[in-house]
Amino acid sequence: MKDLNRKRINNFLRDKLLSIVILLCNTFFIFLFYYSTVDEIEILYPMIITIFLIIIYLVIEWYRYYRFNFQLEKFIEDSSHKVVISTYEQRDIYEVINKIHNNYIGQLEDVNIENNRKSKFLAQLIHNLKTPVTIIDLILQKQKSGKLKAEDINSLKQENMVIYDGLQNVLNLIRLDEFSKDYVPTSVDLLGTINSIIKKNKNYFIYNNVFPKIEIEEKEIFVLSDRKWNEFVIEQIIFNGIKYSASKESPKYITLKIEEEEEFVILKIVDEGIGIPDYDMDRIFEAFFTGENGRIYKNSTGIGLYMCGIVAEKLNQKITIESKVGVGTVVSIRYRRKVNVR
Predict the structure, then answer these.
(1) Final residue of a structural domain among 59, 86, 113
(2) Which domain holds residue 320?
(3) Is 53 inside a domain boundary?
(4) Which of 43, 266, 313, 331 lies deepest, with the highest CB count within 10 Å?
(5) pLDDT confidence of 5, banded at 50, 70, 90?
(6) Which tens digits make up the pLDDT trace of 82-140?
(7) Number of domains in the chain
(8) In a domain, 121, yes or no
(9) Residue 336, SS3?
(10) Are 202 and 254 in contact (CB under 8 A)?
(11) DSSP letter string over 185-248?
(12) What distance lies between CA 27 and its chain's CA centroid?
């Protein structure tokens, strides 16, 4: 405490050094003037008054300085503590500190909300992985007892795909936090991205008896986006189309089209799936919302479209969805045209 007070006194004297020097110089010149015009005895009285006033001034200033700094320390410990302000300078300092404090609290609340959101998502995603793990365990028990059937192998493949998708969603959820560092805006070959996704997921198409149909005349179409994140969005939408179009009877198709509007390019992904009910349309981009289709398809997570919406917003791309039950769904992604990026 003594060291702290000593430090305050030193800081106070340093702050007031210029004022003290000016006052002393002023006093000196007054004395010099009096000394040249009056007797020495008459000089003593104004000298005492001047020194006394300087001391009074310094005491008052010290009191203001000490009280303000003391209360600031209390405010740091407890933000509800009221700070008494004596000068306009102190008011300005307090307003700046209070603004910084409020900004810090706001950022802290945002971090807490984001952490809670992430924890909720991870918990839900991990919970969703428990079901396929349980099913795989039951299939393995059948295998041990020699009761394994051909359809069990298909179920095993399907549940393995569910686990893969779940882990991929966890990875992408984590990557979203680093979006600003991971995001590289450039001219992306849209047709090349589509062909790459189809080639990579060829077996997934075949397994679900769903086939891609590209109705794009242009050989090259470049748009402004991020290569990896744009691929994630398109792939997720195609996955959804396959999932809800899968058929063991007649084959279904996912059609990809391109429309051009002035400075925009619109990619349309059309599936022949079960469609989305009108009463679910307003909530399809909500986290973990699976709606009516989620009751039919138990492997629905409700995280895919949510993440697509987040990524599309960050990429400054617009996603719109039209759907009719029993007919299918049309997902449109609007891009800006190619720009020259070096």
Answers:
(1) 86
(2) 184-342
(3) yes
(4) 331
(5) low
(6) 777 777 777 778 888 888 888 988 899 988 887 887 787 788 778 778 878 888 888 88
(7) 2
(8) no
(9) strand
(10) no
(11) -EEEEHHHHHHHHHHHTHHHHHHTTEEEEEE---S--EEEE-HHHHHHHHHHHHHHHHHHH--S
(12) 62
